[in-house]
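1st attempt posting a full record on here, be nice pls
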Amino acid sequence: MSKLWRTAVVCTIAGSLITAGGLPALAAPAAATPTITIAARTRIEVTGDALVLYRGNPKDLFAKITGNISGAVPGNVVRLYAQPFSHPARLNGSASAAAHYSFTVKPAIATHYRAELVTSSSDPTVVVSSAVVTVYLSSGSRVSTKRGCVSVPVCHPAYQLYLFLPSTLIRRYMSKHWYVYVGVRLAATSKPPPAPKWLYLDRHASVSGPHRITADQYERTVGFSLRIGNDSATWVFLVCAKDTEPSDGIGLPGSHGCGTGRVRSNVAYLG
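the predicted structure (as tokens):
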């Protein structure tokens, strides 16, 4: 609440001091300066960055852009602008201004979002703008078993991995180097042991050349060797390619472990 300053009005006439009659005047409170906040929320968040997938679980394809507004007056409108990677900003949606706003978005590449409070739907004069938030995009994927562990003491499983990316970028990613991580835990019992905690970079793993299936899908086959003897075994493998988000708008900015010597088996993201 604005502070009210109580002011007495004093006049002088011909050297005589008089005080204006009546109650002391109260200064009108200053109008509140409008504000608008913005935040991006997704099911996948890595080191504070909001991430969605190009294809996969439908819940992982969308982001919520939300914020709070103060100081709006009747008729004000909130507009959401989206600026996809290397493209100009465009209007993504609008709604009547309220204390809270929310938009659901589905970016097809890393996209900056900004909210604006404008005078009305017919008057686009900007009252106040929010900060900018970014929602990042990663490829979708699917895995199928091509060959299981069919012999001991050393077995050679192989898997087909299907990757999904925007058609305009898929050729660039088909030529990227893949890093393969493998971890195995053995147990001299018939019951499979828990999954290993760590996966190690397997420099002897095989990765086939890429095969493009559709405009936005390609596949590669990954194989590796496991020495398990006659034990029960549980193994986990992961593959990754290093992100180049600043130059192509895919993945996350910075480095997220891809190419290091070992990673945890439950790592949320490698890039």
